[in-house]
Structure formats: C-alpha cells, structure tokens
Amino acid sequence: MDVRSIYSQIALRDEAGGCLLCDGAPCSAACPYGIDAARAIRSVRFENTAGAALELPNPLPCKTCAGRPCIGACLKKRTGRAVAIDEILMRTAGVRQETPKSDLSIEFCGVKCENPFFLSSSIVASGYEMIARAFRMGWAGAAFKTIGLFVPDEVSPRFDALRKETTPFLGFKNIEQISEKPIGENLAAIRRLKAEFPEKVIIASIMGRSEEEWTELARLMTGAGADIIECNFSCPHMAADGLGADVGQNPELVAAFTRAVRRGTRLPVLAKMTPNLGNMEPPAIAALDAGASGIAAINTIKSVMNVNLDTFASGPDVAGVTSVGGYSGKAVKPIALRFIQSMKQNARLKNAPVSGMGGIETWRDAAEFIAMGCENIQVTTAVMQYGYRIIADMISGLELYLDARGMASVKQLVGQALPRIVPADDLDRETICYPKFDRARCVGCGRCRVSCDDAGHQALRRDERGAPILDARRCVGCHLCVTVCPVEAIAQGVRVKKRTAEAKCI
After folding, report:
1. Cis bond before residue 468 (omega within 30° of 0)
2. CA distance linking residue 87 with residue 15, whole number of Å
3. Which of 2, 231, 405, 424 is the most buried (most CB within 10 A)?
4. What domains sit in the chain, N to C, each tagged with a CATH number?
5. For residue range 418-442, what is the model confidence (pLDDT) as tens digits?
6. What is the mean pLDDT of residues 232-261?
C-alpha cells in the first residue's frame, strides 16, 4: 500500500472518530440523494469501512453535490468544525468488495443462534420493550438482567466513566445491582419475548441467597420459556454478603449453587465467572463438575476510580461517598481474553462452551474473543455508549472478515488463536526482531526517539529531516517505537539470530 493510501486511511479514521453519532442524524436527513451518511460514518468509526462502502450508491454523487447540505446540517460545527462528511463518503466508496456470503449462525450449548451476538445481563437487557427493539435490529439473543427473589433499593447516580484525552468511556464503572423490577414482571417479559421472537435466544440470569432460592429461580425461568439459565456468581458490588463475586471466589459455593440450579431445570446452565481472583479455573471446574453446561466470562472488575480532587469523593458520587463497583469497557478486553485463554487451554475446561464478554465494541473485538475459543459473545458497555445500532456493523464486519479469510462459517474461527498462546518458557529467546522503518511514510515527528530515549534503550537518533536511525548495537527489539508511531511508519522487521545480528546503524 502506498504512502498516500496509508495517510488517507489514518485521516479517514480520525475524521470519522470526530462524528457525534447523532440520533436522527441531520446529515442524513439533509442529503438530497437519500444517502444515509451517518450510517456510513458510523461503520467507518466501528472498523467496518468495507461494510460502509457496500451501503453507498455507485456512482457516489458527492463530487457534484451543490452546497454540501450534509455539512451544513452537521451538529459538530457548533463545537468548532463540521465533520468532513463528503470526504469520508468519497474515500469510503473506493473500498468496494462483494456482498459477504459467510454463515454467522452457531450452536451454543445445544441452542441454535442466528449469530453470536447477545446483549449481556445488565441495564441494556432489562425489559420487554428494550430487548424486543434489540431483536428487531439483529441481535440474536439477550441475557436478561439478573433476576432474584428480592428487589434491591438502588442509589443515584450509579455510573461513572474513565476518559483519556478525547476518548470517552475508555473504562466504565457501575454500582448497579440486579433487576429492580418485581419477579412477576420479569417472567411476563420473558414469556412475551419468546412468544413474539421464537427464533431468538433468551438467557435468564439469576441470583439467589440460598440453595432453595437458586432452585426456585431456575424452575421459574424454565417455566417462563427461557432457553438457557445463567448463574450470576460474579457481580462485584452486591450490597449483601454471600452474593455475587463473594460466591464466585469460592469453588465450594459455586458447586453447591450450581447443583441447586440443576435441581430446578433441565435447560443448559452457564456459570458466570468473576475476574476478581487470580485463577478462574477452580470455580469454573467446580461449576462444570456440579452440572453446568458452560461458562460465561468475564463479569466486571472491582474498582475505585475518578477521585474528585476538590471534594475527594470518588465516582459515582452518592451524597459525597461511593462504594467499590464493577469496571468494564474497552480497557478490560485484554484481561477478559487472558481468563478465557487460560480456561480454554485447561484440560478440564477446554471443551466447555464459553460465552465471552468484557470490552467488546466492534466486530474486530468479537472476532478476537471467538478466535480465543468463545462460541457466543455478550455486550453491555458499548451498547450503553452507542446504542443497539452497533449490531449492524458487528454482523457486517464479521461477515466480511470471514469472507476475506476464506471461512464459510463463524464456527471455523472458534479457537484459532489458542495455539498461538504458549508458556513464557517456550518463547523463542535466541532471535531478535528489529523494527522496520518506512522513511517515505515517516513525517519526522520524533515520537519514536522520545520513547526510546526515556523508556527504552536509547537506540534511536534522527537524521537531518527527523527520520529515525536505528543503532542495532543498542536495540533489543522491544518494539516500543512501533507502538507509539502515530502514522504507522514503523513495523515488525525480519527475525534474525541474536549471535549473528549485525551490530551497525540501520
């Protein structure tokens, strides 16, 4: 790919990232050709440029459009500059490919799913109207917000977010508990959803305070028509002891409550695991031995965040104080993948179906979880930020990816990444991989040198125009420079034997 194309892709991504993702987007309403510009920009934002191109007319009329009414209608200009909508659409239209033909359907715990994308047990799946709307938009299933035989008394506010520079929702904290609706209302919602959407999958998430309650809840959910029971052994911020993560950290309690659930149902049973422990495998094994059909992971991580340095209150601020809450969002994805990998490479757990969650925003995130061994994906925080509409790009992006890889079915992707995770002792320590610099693409900003000097091995200097020069005598091949380059001008180079590596400047 030439330099101009690379820069164009970076600029396209950055420009789309500035879109406000408006509800009832005025740019689409203003288009005289009926183009849904907002839909295309959203697809680019969610790493699905090829999918955006498929939605655009061919030829694209933007070049000859008089007055650019979409830009005139853009709400972003109220905060500074309007999004370059026409430029995004014209660049996107050039990324064309065939309509995908891959099959996203998959069987999970013996239940047929039209695609792997489910809403996870949370506020995003807490009632009939919400879940019905999500189903109509393309979600294959939903884990109903956790139901108990008690109704919690909730606080206000319940949410807080971690930001970095211009990135909102880098991480998200909540102190919300289980469903605050009466159990009868929740059971009626499940019955109605199954009656109106028989092809969709309902996972009934439950939490009891005793073995008797776990059994009774399982019985009630089965009678309401749920397809799968999910045992919430992992909520990190329940107000009462002996609930949520307190259970999930104790394999004996996990086993006892799983057996109790199994006494109340013949449906598939998922044990939802807590990440608030060093090793998830003991409670997961205990759940399977006690009758669970599969595992759901991960739930949120215990957290304290965003201390107000004027009041010293942490968020969410409830009358000046807060409590430990659950951390979620994009930032937890690496942690979720690590726990799932550990379970899928455990001899006792490798064949257990896994419903994966934790930081999934785009089709690419979902594909990574599937490649790590998940057969099902659950999403919450991304929906809270962007809405149910993200499902369109999750489906389209995954279909296009599978087609590009020559995979006819999503089932072919399951577990593909697992052989690539090995013990640290098995890593190659006899070779070195130097970074490779594309000086034509380099803009001479010097970010690589700053990082190498201050956090690396002082192996870079700059030529007269600012481009990096590598001193191989100092370089250890850490690739810090690769990670910090803002224009993708540094990549992984050729791997060579350490003892034969040339000690010179490159």
Report:
1. no
2. 9
3. 231
4. 3-93 (1.10.1060.10), 106-155+178-304+327-420 (3.20.20.70), 428-500 (3.30.70.20)
5. 999 999 999 999 999 999 999 889 9
6. 84
| Separation between Cα atoms, residue 101 and residue 408, nearest integer Å | 7
Res. 454: pLDDT tops 70: yes
| Confidence (pLDDT) at 240 | 60
Q: What is the CA radius of gyration of the chain?
A: 25
Cβ–Cβ < 8 Å for 83, 92: no
235 has catalytic annotation? yes
Structure tokens at 447: 């970010």
Burial (Cβ within 10 Å: 0-12, 13-18, ≥19) of residue 356: buried
Tokens of 259: 């057996």
Which tokens sit at 424?
Answer: 């640290």
Task: Tell me what pLDDT residue 2 has.
Answer: 56
- Give the DSSP H/E element, type plus range, for residue 382: helix 381-386
Neighbours of 408 (CB within 10 A): 12
Give the length of the chain: 506
What's the burial of 455, exposed, middle or buried (CB within 10 Å: 0-12/13-18/19+)? Answer: exposed
Considering the entire predicted model, what is its pTM?
A: 0.94
Chain-centre distance of CA 464, in angstroms? Answer: 43
Spot the catalytic one: 70, 74, 113, 235.
Answer: 235
Q: Which residue has the higher pLDDT, 150 or 345?
A: 345
- Check: CB of residue 349 under 8 Å from CB of residue 341: no
| pLDDT given at position 257 | 96
Both tokens assigned to 321: 């104080």
